[in-house]
Amino acid sequence: xxxxxxxxxxxxxxxxxxxxxxxxxxxxxxxxxxxxxxxxxxxxxxxxxxxxxxxxxxxxxxxxxxxxxxxxxxxxxxxxxxxxxxxxxxxxxxxxxxxxxxxxxxxxxxxxxxxxxxxxxxxxxxxxxxxxxxxxxxxxxxxxxxxxxxxxxxxxxxxxxxxxxxxxxxxxxxxxxxxxxxxxxxxxxxxxxxxxxxxxxxxxxxxxxxxxxxxxxxxxxxxxxxxxxxxxxxxxxxxxxxxxxxxxxxxxxxxxxxxxxxxxxxxxxxxxxxxxxxxxxxxxxxxxxxxxxxxxxxxxxxxxxxx
Length: 307
Ligand SMILES: [Zn+2]
Prior knowledge:
Elements: E1 8-10, E2 18-20, E3 25-27, E4 33-45, H1 46-50, H2 55-58, E5 69-80, E6 85-88, H3 98-103, H4 112-118, E7 128-130, H5 136-139, E8 143-145, E9 151-153, E10 159-163, H6 164-171, H7 183-186, E11 194-196, E12 200-201, E13 206-211, E14 218-225, E15 228-232, H8 255-272, E16 275-277, E17 286-292, E18 295-304
Parallel strand pairs: 3-18, 6-7, 7-10, 10-11, 15-16
Antiparallel strand pairs: 1-2, 2-3, 4-5, 5-6, 8-9, 12-13, 13-14, 14-15, 16-17, 17-18
The structure holds zinc ion.
The site of zinc ion has 5 residues, from loops.
């Protein structure tokens, strides 16, 4: 479904898209629908998000408030190819206590199930849940507590997928990541999780890459739609500001590897005109990359157009 009725031109640079003049909304010719689903709107400490980069620098590229917190969303992606309805990531869920959500400065503006409903989907419609990794703000929405306090799967009809490297890593967490791997998120998945050993094809249109700078075996899915290549960047490149190669979150377990992985990827993304989809960017949903004399930057902010 596409609600915009604005004047459209054919964009000669990227001929798989139809560009709406007013909003830079892109839509595609294939019947596959890509639907961004916002599960959470929250805030994070700016130092956590940008690591060793001084605030005087990163604040030119990302909004910040007087408490040094930055607006963040958990932007999942629903891929409806007509047969399967694949949800990438699930946000942080709502089963934790008040203290947990106060640390996340969670607003009540969005939640996963309501956002799915607004897009016309019930939890039982989801056939697959693909986790980029199992940190709490990516997996928490897959499990809820029922009225009796039991942990239940939010998507009972779905197959749940993660990389085997990430699953093993999450079950024996190191002291640094331990607070992000919550037993109540992982335990209900134990008997049903399907492990992906190698990068490669997930469906005819979705290819999975693995990156381990942020955490071991993070999955970065690439979706092919007609001539357009859309990359779900997860915590690999969480916001458009993180296109700057040295902008690495302080939570990344292997920052040097994260920079290396990003540089190799950005070269390809710039050359081939990939559309990067940002999971955590509260301002920019997606965009292409350009190489300037100062390095890689966001070229054109875009909105994925199949709501
Ligand atoms: Zn993460």
